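Hello Y.,

Per our agreement to keep a running log of every chain we model this quarter, I'm adding this entry. I've kept the format consistent with earlier entries: sequence first, then predicted structure.
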Amino acid sequence: MTEGLALPFDYAPFWAWFLLFARFSGLLTTLPGIGTEEVPMTFRGTLALMLSAILAIAGIQAPFPSGVVEGGVMLGCEYILGYVMGVIPQLILGALAV
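Predicted structure for the entry above:
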């Protein structure tokens, strides 16, 4: 994890939760049915928090970044991946509606 750096607290589970939260935020932004304006943002945010907390408690592990830039890139990639995971069903449902 962090060799040579004495951390008083293990930040790895929190980091895994943070990455999961970024992915679920992107997913719930665009997912058909949930990512619409009819569903309040507070509901989507709470759902993303709860889903990522459940998976983080279940033991999902994520690589710990070696620096701030790497951490930012990891967070951005997770959000974009979640966003794309929500856009794909949206495109499929749009194609079926035609």
